[in-house]
């Protein structure tokens, strides 16, 4: 693989994180005034700050004011006040604000991408995916919210005389707790659906990536969303995230399965709903009739996008015996051609991991596998020469159940290869473990791949694509089965989860109960005859 090392290479095409003294574009990301303009949106009165360092160079990036539990109470009070007026705002007006957000995100994408890169270290092309997906989501709900949320007519118990309507009523204030891996995207997309449905939001981004989430809040306000409607708090996950779970009317959480369980328990205690978008150990299947060039290209993107720190990325690849060697040759060659670098420029394929903790986890998974007999086909090492948290894109063979990375999510650039002889066996192995987020099947027989997909335990299955086909098809629901979560984002499901149904029935002319001096017994007979008649007429 090609390495672009800002510290040692020094050539004209190689550039490290911009030097604030010499590059004016760098200065804004680090400029105290820029940071202050973003952080003044936080409800954070405790007087303490947390230092955030950039994984690009481990240099300090910002000091972020920290919220207290009392600040969370205040954020909810503000959000509740704002939500009353917002719920009365016609859904068409809410939609127009989302369509303005779409344009603003595209207009300011360079700034957004720079900030994401400073906070996460990811390669520019993967940072670009974030404004892209936010714009898609804003456009989707900007065009469809009214349709999804429209009051619907349902058949009443007495034909013609019982008129029934089902309204969609906003839940109130939605708590959005989001992780660091897609900090702009995941801070916004679920909340966009929540406000489209007439709710307010109290958001708690991960401590490493508060600034990207705050930039999103600024853009929402510019798009015409009332400032008070979207509150952001910052702080420790358990303390501040926990305070959100104690007050929200609904919680949307994206993060690890372990934290998801805690959130689910908290929500169960309060009898409120939640959607949980959690981890995965996603499988990719290469069938014997696959186009191997396409499969190898997809496998690289599937395994190493955002350095593997992507919930829908692939950590297990099952390859048909007949094509195994030819696939592996192509996959390894493409992986070795990846360019690693910690620069803000386009052109790098992979940046560093986000933190020391991620690097330690990835290193431990690979070391454990190698110690127990796995073979490294390429990669396998940390690369401190490139930046503080670099790890090479790594392909393993011979991974077995006693190795940690066999079933546990690594959440890094490490993928294991497995051979299979028949497809039923491959599906059974792909379905092993407890997760069920995303899967991918490469085959030139689309109908057969779609048939097999029905047997895969995953909330999304991409055929001849890694993850983008489902992730960007906004009308289709996306989310996990089993320990990968509950609830769905995207599509009608993604907005209806933030509503309560309210059934309104209007009764006309006749009432329920005996009419005109009829006895209870005669009434029962009439009702029985009526039931039989309705069944004969085919009524539901
Ligand atoms: P995490 O669970 O540690 O943290 C996620 C968020 O929860 C952060 O904002 C954190 O501060 C907060 N938090 C932590 N403890 C909390 C608590 N007790 N109560 C309330 N909030 C708390 O997850 P992470 O390590 O930051 O993210 C990586 C994980 O997220 C991976 O497992 C990945 O697969 C998953 N993920 C899933 C999706 C998806 O859509 N399914 C998307 C991205 C990431």
TrEMBL record:
<feature type="domain" description="Aldehyde dehydrogenase">
    <location>
        <begin position="47"/>
        <end position="504"/>
    </location>
</feature>
<dbReference type="InterPro" id="IPR016162">
    <property type="entry name" value="Ald_DH_N"/>
</dbReference>
<dbReference type="Pfam" id="PF00171">
    <property type="entry name" value="Aldedh"/>
</dbReference>
<dbReference type="InterPro" id="IPR015590">
    <property type="entry name" value="Aldehyde_DH_dom"/>
</dbReference>
<feature type="region of interest" description="Disordered">
    <location>
        <begin position="1"/>
        <end position="25"/>
    </location>
</feature>
<feature type="compositionally biased region" description="Basic and acidic residues">
    <location>
        <begin position="16"/>
        <end position="25"/>
    </location>
</feature>
<dbReference type="InterPro" id="IPR029510">
    <property type="entry name" value="Ald_DH_CS_GLU"/>
</dbReference>
<keyword id="KW-0560">Oxidoreductase</keyword>
<dbReference type="GO" id="GO:0016620">
    <property type="term" value="F:oxidoreductase activity, acting on the aldehyde or oxo group of donors, NAD or NADP as acceptor"/>
</dbReference>
<dbReference type="InterPro" id="IPR016161">
    <property type="entry name" value="Ald_DH/histidinol_DH"/>
</dbReference>
<protein>
    <submittedName>
        <fullName>Aldehyde dehydrogenase family protein</fullName>
    </submittedName>
</protein>
<feature type="active site">
    <location>
        <position position="277"/>
    </location>
</feature>
<comment type="similarity">
    <text>Belongs to the aldehyde dehydrogenase family.</text>
</comment>
<dbReference type="InterPro" id="IPR016163">
    <property type="entry name" value="Ald_DH_C"/>
</dbReference>
